[in-house]
Specification:
Elements (H helix, E strand, L loop, with lengths): L5 E6 L26 H12 L5 E8 L5 H4 L5 H11 L3 E6 L7 H18 L3 E6 L7 H13 L1 H6 E6 L6 H13 L3 E4 L6 E5 L4 E6 L8 H5 L17 E6 L3 E4 L2 E5 L5 H14 L1
Parallel strand pairs: 1-2, 1-9, 2-3, 3-4, 4-5, 5-8
Antiparallel strand pairs: 6-7, 7-8, 9-10, 10-11
Helix pairs in contact: 3-4, 5-7
């Protein structure tokens, strides 16, 4: 197996606190809060890393809502996911809708866990928040950004990306600006290839990147953030194939053509789906 680089993602749950009309993940508040087991993820991660293919050194955790464990009493689950990725020398990326930013106690707990893992390992953690007209989450996102900007320790260890803002959604940029201004954060924009928004608290500038090319994350955001002791675990840019595995042992390639893994080797299933993709 060779060619395009491949990225790995785990869909940890179908539960979500939103019911978006456009959701292609069959997720929502009526879905089971069942989580993909950590042992299963570790098994699949080891198999994936053993494959003789070019791989990105980032590991994506998504859903559903990736913070679902906190809503259902599984307080240790996300920290364990982060540690598992870092132990494999991969950059953990949490993809979330950020609604938890409206709940101070929950927000504080999530950030405490992220800081604890980051400081214990000396590694960066990435978070991608999806912003679009279906989520109605700009106020919550502004709360999250406010904490990252105001707390220098959190800002050093968490690389934050806003997803869903693109060249055809200028209104979303302005809406986000308005939400930030309400929270006392003055945003600045600048035109450059990495499409960044600069935030300031009056003393320091903080880069917040959004992406026009739909990549999972952007390495540059971290390097510009004066990380101090924190190291970038791996490159986060993802252009190429994405393998997603869910708790039902279904593997999808580029979000389509799912196939059950069960006791089949991951490499065999990936190759099968790549072959199908070539035929279409």
């Amino acid at each position: 197996m060779s060619g395009t680089k491949t990225n790995l993602a785990f869909k940890i749950t179908n539960w979500c606190n939103l019911q978006c009309r456009h959701c292609c993940e069959n997720s929502g508040p009526s879905q089971s809060p069942r989580l993909m087991s950590l042992d299963k993820m570790k098994k699949y991660l080891d198999e994936f890393n053993a494959l003789p293919i070019e791989k990105y050194d980032s590991l994506v955790f998504t859903g559903g809502e990736v913070m679902a464990p906190y809503y259902h009493g599984e307080q240790k689950y996300i920290p364990e996911c982060l540690k598992m990725a870092i132990d494999a020398n991969m950059l953990p990326i949490l993809k979330t809708n950020g609604i938890w930013g409206n709940d101070k106690a929950l927000k504080d707990k999530i950030f405490y866990d992220i800081e604890s893992v980051a400081y214990n390992t000396g590694k960066l953690i990435a978070m991608d928040i999806s912003v679009d007209r279906f989520h109605n989450n700009l106020g919550a996102v502004a709360n999250i950004i406010n904490d990252v900007v105001r707390d220098s320790e959190l800002g050093f260890c968490l690389a934050l990306t806003i997803q869903g803002i693109h060249k055809n959604s200028t209104h979303a940029v302005y809406d986000l600006y308005s939400a930030l201004l309400t929270h006392g954060i003055r945003p600045y924009s600048r035109t450059r290839q990495d499409d960044s928004i600069l935030l300031t608290d009056g003393q320091s500038l903080y880069p917040l990147y959004y992406n026009f090319k739909q990549s999972v994350a952007n390495t540059g955001r971290a390097r510009a953030n004066k990380l101090g002791m924190f190291e970038l675990t791996g490159k986060a840019d993802v252009y190429g194939d994405c393998v997603m595995i869910d708790s039902n042992d279904v593997l999808r390639l580029n979000n389509v053509r799912g196939s059950a893994i069960h006791n089949r080797p991951i490499g065999e299933v990936i190759q099968q789906l790549k072959n199908k993709e070539k035929q279409h």
